[in-house]
Design goal:
- Two copies of one chain form a homodimer.
- Chain A is α/β, with parallel strands linked by helices.
- The first copy, chain A, folds into two domains: about 260 residues, Rossmann fold; about 170 residues, Rossmann fold.
- Chain A has 18 helices and 15 strands.
- The first copy, chain A, has a seven-stranded mixed beta sheet with strand order 1-4-5-15-10-11-14, with helices on both faces. In chain A, strands 8-7-6-9 form a four-stranded parallel beta sheet, sandwiched between helices. In chain A, strands 2-3 form a two-stranded antiparallel sheet.
- The first copy, chain A, is globular.
- The relative contact order of chain A is 0.15.
- At the A-B interface, helix 3, helix 6, helix 8, helix 15 and helix 17 of A face helix 3, helix 6, helix 8, helix 15 and helix 17 of B.
């Protein structure tokens, strides 16, 4: 099909939307390492996981063999409210950069939660409802996940209890307020509502919290309250599975126009968006059908893949969750207070960790001022105000496009634009006013953080 | 076509997008009254208007004969970045209400400006660029228009000077910050940058401003600065013309599925969204092709159509703009400080005023607490967090759907969902905390406001 025919936005028909999620582990010869029980260090069983998670989600978590898992009609029905998401050809950005590269982005921000998180939130809420639960608990950092889960719970009439990292709770009252519109209760973490929260407050009075703390509190609340389970917005296999709707739609849209991407780029915090975007392409590559380049982009202030260790570690500060083998900076690692936005988690999805370890995926880290400069450049030509997280991918997509300009190569670049930055204007303001720094951990700080990871 | 076949979201193909705006005045037998020169009270000429507005826009303002005006390719190219906008079938809302009514909404919030305002902003920026101007000036209240214009000016590399109503400037720092991302300069109004601003500050020290003041400042700045013109986001004929892209797309989408709307509903502040939505349907009715019901919804705190007078009045506080015959509460009218969101303008589009006067369009006013209750109900089932302005239309759409439930009628209701409420969480918070009141002007206050309108 001729170049001229490719529209600005490729929307699939509703009838072309994926009917099953894709489980990339089924095509991986060397699978990611299993989760371990944090006390016995034995492989975590379905029974054990089912005390924390809904049973069907625990099954998905452990499923390494089925390549496709059907999306229940109730979830597909909700997806139709905000999906298919457009695959946008960045004609204006290409022209601005004067690059021969062809740039596409999958835009996941066209829903009220403002990000891709809703893809998994609605799935997890559905299984909770199906199991007859009263409600779910979770943590949220920047607030995207909490907002998405609030929306999903409101749809299925489930109670939703969110532990929000305290500094974010205080700095982002409007995020909190959106969750309230959807009927969620939001507690700043650490709190005195849980034992682990009290303990953390005792040991670190005045702490403004971290994702690891908030996870511990949410898990404790879920496992000690009748009719509740815990849900998580990233890192886990089940979350990556749900997020493959991103990559499946992207691949279907590209296939429709006969386009083969050379490079796929996504930001990586816990790995949910990147894993969701690239999984179907990784699968094709593992099956020998194609050859792609995948790039994970992380903040220099939280360089999990680029400077972490690939070992078993705790997933949370309170050490109540199963152990996961992953690239990690240690469960005590907290990025500099000057770091804006999300992508703060100390670990990484075990699937992406394994793909990185096998050399199938690359990783780079970028500084936040260059990320915000890329965000602003993008906003001005493409119209969309990107979330700081998504802007990490923009930065590297622009870098790759500029390399093409030098070499004259007409590469096709696809990146994930995970969300919008409407609730991040404080960070944009700091950037504009020249008050944003680029602090990255020193070698000594990294070495100390890694030293604190126990040996299992 | 069977009911089952109607998707959640009807997206037109890019090739189906309108190539011309529709000028409803061409089909009106009794035209809206012309603008008058504020000093001579004679009909405003093209030459006079061209001192304030770009010449081609002034021509559009005065054009009452051409039914279709071609959309330049440069504007259509920008439209393709965020249009066609989806026409959404509110299946979830219908189910929640258990109504036999079929509800559709045209969602204009899927762009960074967060509203329909971008449709006219990009058109006005284009003509300004084409005329070789350096920049444009404007006012903004709630901030939607200023944001849209900043985006449009950034795209065409034009300077953009925004006078933002002071109370809004102070309460919505993030709106201001988005405009800065797009390179606009934003000044709280009234300011000491203009003579009219100084005069207003002298007469009303400590005033937190009004749209009428900000318009006067923006017009003065434009007419006293070389290479600048003034642009406006609502009220004017040219703005309604650009906004007909909303109604043309809506009609094309409905026609595609053989659907005829019974009732079309839109919120009305200056009238740009409502006029844009209904114009193509009004035209069909004026030509005797169909029969529809049109409802304008305005806030009880600023009841221009429902309690105002249909007379010539000033469009701005400083009385520098042309006089317009319209429904008005007087250019000195300022809604209660407790009123949240936009829809605060004292007057109304002369086209809509005339349609209302001829009985072609109806109008109702609604209280803000019932508006926010409808907004929350809508958000929880349809997922989208609506702007307070748009929620006026939601409230009345729900009312009409509930009437259908009583009567058993399967009416088709279409309403305009003009934008998102991400920057209005302060108002949502007030609503939640029970701190929002429903102040509406007393009969005496309205009588006094109307008494202050000069006779021309």
């Amino acid at each position: 099909m001729s170049e001229q025919k490719i529209p600005y936005k490729i929307y699939l028909e509703e009838s072309e939307m994926p009917k099953a999620w894709y489980n990339v582990r089924a095509d991986m010869k060397k699978k990611p390492a299993p989760l371990l029980n944090p006390e016995t260090h034995e492989e975590a069983t379905l029974e054990e996981l089912s005390k924390v998670f809904c049973r069907e989600l625990a099954e998905q978590e452990l499923n390494t063999t089925d390549a496709y898992i059907e999306i229940p009609e109730e979830i597909r029905s909700f997806y139709r409210m905000f999906r298919p998401a457009p695959l946008v050809r960045a004609y204006c950005l290409e022209e601005k950069l004067q690059t021969p590269a062809k740039i596409y982005y999958k835009f996941e921000g066209n829903n009220t939660s403002g990000s891709h998180k809703l893809n998994s939130a609605i799935a997890q809420a559905y299984y909770a409802k199906k199991e007859g639960l009263k409600g779910v608990t979770t943590e949220t950092g920047a607030g995207q996940w909490g907002t998405a889960l609030s929306m999903a719970c409101s749809y299925f009439d489930l109670d939703c209890k969110v532990y929000m990292v305290k500094c974010s709770y205080e700095q982002k009252p409007f995020r909190r307020e959106v969750m309230r519109v959807y009927g969620a209760s939001v507690t700043p973490s650490p709190s005195t509502e849980t034992e682990v929260g009290k303990k953390i407050l005792m040991e670190h009075p005045g702490t403004t919290g971290s994702l690891g703390c908030a996870i511990s509190e949410a898990v404790e609340k879920a496992t000690t309250t009748e009719g509740y389970r815990y849900v998580l917005g990233s890192v886990l296999n089940m979350v990556l599975l749900h997020q493959t709707i991103i990559g499946l739609e992207t691949k279907a849209a590209l296939d429709k126009y006969g386009i083969t991407p050379d490079i796929s780029i996504g930001c990586a915090g816990g790995g949910s968006n990147l894993g969701g975007l690239i999984s179907p392409f990784v699968g094709a590559q593992l099956r020998g059908e194609a050859n792609y380049k995948f790039i994970a982009v992380e903040p220099a202030s939280c360089p999990t893949l680029t400077r972490g260790s690939y070992v078993y570690d705790y997933c949370d500060t309170g050490r109540v969750c199963p152990l996961s083998k992953m690239y990690t900076l240690g469960s005590g690692f907290i990025p500099s207070a000057s770091h804006a936005g999300g992508l703060r988690y100390h670990g990484m999805s075990s699937v992406l960790s394994e793909l990185y370890d096998q050399g199938i995926m690359e990783a780079v880290s970028v500084k936040q001022t260059e990320v915000f400069a890329a965000a602003e450049q993008f906003a001005r030509v493409e119209g969309i105000l990107p979330a700081p997280e998504s802007s990490h991918a923009i930065k590297v997509a622009i870098d790759e496009a500029m390399k093409c300009k030098e070499t004259g190569e007409e590469k096709t670049i696809v990146f994930g634009l995970t969300g919008t930055g409407y609730f991040d204007m404080y960070a944009y303001e700091k950037f504009h006013d020249g008050k944003m720094d680029d602090y990255a951990p020193t070698d000594e700080e990294i070495a100390n953080a890694l030293k604190n990871i126990p040996k299992f």
